Amino acid sequence: MNELNKLYEAMLLSWGSLIKEEGKIVFAIDGQEYPLKIDNMNLHLPLSEVLDGNVMEKVFFHPACENITSKETEVFKIIRRITAMRLLDVFRRIPVVLFTVASGTPKKGWNQKTLDLLEPLKAAKQTVRGEVNKLFARMHIELEENGLDNRFIHFKITKGGVSKVTGQRIYYKTKPSFPFYTEIVRRLSRSEGQADNQTVELNNHTVSRAALKLAAHLFQVILPAVLSPDDYERESTDPVAARLVSYLEAYGEIADQMNKIQNTFRAEFDKAGLYTIDLNWLERLEELPDIHRQVPVMDYNSHNTRDDAHAHQQSNSNMGNLLSLTSQPNNNQQQQQYNQNGQQMQQQGNMLGDFDVTAPMMVNGDRWVKYEIDYANNRVLHHAIAVNNNPVIYMCSKKGNLLQRQEQSMANMMAQGMMGGMGMMGNMNLQGATQLANGMILLPSGQVINPAMMGMMQQPSMPSAAPSVYVDQSGGLNDGQGWG
């Protein structure tokens, strides 16, 4: 197992996932195991022995290959869900132990801060404790289908900016927020002056004011971050896996706070069988710029394929549905583009065998020409002409999901051809190269070469069980006009 997969495995295990046969990933909670799925395909760890075998109907976990220009990918959405569920599951278990601690005899080593922390819990009536448990059971990780916001935690990710600390360019930054706690505080403020036994409605749920006060106290004790979320914003200043790194560092801050409250009463939590969340892998995130290429770019990891405007919400009450994500490719929509004469043309979606050959959403100005199927690599290649007349190839997966856009300058191609033919090819990395149906050669670097201009013999196709093209993480696949 390479170093990247070791890091991925440590992440997944710490989030409550298990790695099964052939690297299949399942999420375990409350004694149940739920496979992680995208488009009804199981998610797998990208182990070399699995990639070298039958990869049909498999999706691989490789979030570090995400292109800097992409919106959130399907794999990243899965990461959001399982990390939030892990945090929520641990949070719900902590109050039960704290109530037990508060009911016992104070230890001599406890300072005044610890005693003050436990006093409201010790004084709480059993009925109020029951109300709090029911209240916390209503928390979820996504918005309700009816629009209610019962989310325990939400990580807001924003793109761009300049670091106030280092002055460096920020690629992504992530800040936690706590919608359910915020609503508790709002309801307490609006009911100020009322007796503790008065009931208050919170998101269609009736609860006593005493229970709301106790719930707010527990949040502040377990997660001090609720009092100042801005202090826990984390930035990523390296373009490699920038969204992932900023998100996981913010996640780590929240998990660490829940670990600290457990360590304060370690013996009691050990008796209850509740242990800290492993965060040892966090320090290895700084290795990603060096190891992220140990696995080639994978579908559902490098670019988003889901049309967020048409995405359907998952039911929070069904864990299986929550952890099974269905993408809705942008290219399933009717594509409208214009040819050079200004005449409107429409590229309708259609299927050819098992290949979806619908034209993808293209950069403004690109004009679709034709498609071809790369059977050796299970890819659909859409050829287009850019506004500057450079040839462009849009590489899509078998199911029609956009993987990358590659623009090749004709001037560069001709210059390369004049610089040495066979001799120059000897200096190029041809390992993993693929011959396209039109005779062009696609190098592992993403560069497209015309053999005719190079004065060389065409190379035979080189089938691969997985994509062998690396996508430049600096955003080199986007010409600055956006993805439409």
Summarize the structure in words:
- With 484 residues, the chain is of the alpha+beta class.
- The chain has two domains: 3-325, no CATH class; 330-454, no CATH class.
- The chain contains 14 helices and 23 strands.
- It has helices at 3-14, 48-51, 74-103, 112-123, 126-137, 179-190, 209-222, 242-264, 266-271, 288-291, 319-322, 410-418, 421-425, 451-454; strands spanning 17-19, 25-29, 32-35, 37-38, 41-44, 58-60, 154-159, 172-177, 199-202, 205-208, 234-236, 324-325, 335-338, 344-347, 351-352, 355-356, 367-374, 379-385, 391-397, 402-407, 434-435, 441-442, 448-449.
- The strands form eight sheets. A four-stranded mixed beta sheet has the order 6-5-4-12. Strands 17-18-19-20 form a four-stranded antiparallel beta sheet, with no helix packed on it. It has a three-stranded antiparallel beta sheet with strand order 1-2-3.
- Strand 19 and strand 20 (402-407) form a beta hairpin.
- Helix 3 packs across helix 4 and helix 6 crosses helix 7 (209-222).
- The protein is elongated.
- It starts with a helix and ends in a 30-residue tail after the last helix.
- The model is unreliable at 307-313, 330-351, 415-427 and 452-484 (pLDDT under 50).
Q: Structural class per helix/strand content?
A: alpha+beta
Total number of helical segments? Answer: 14
Rg, alpha carbons: 26 Å
- Low-pLDDT segments: 307-313, 330-351, 415-427, 452-484
Distance, first to last CA:
39 Å
Strand content is 15-25%
Average of per-residue pLDDT values: 80
Shape: elongated
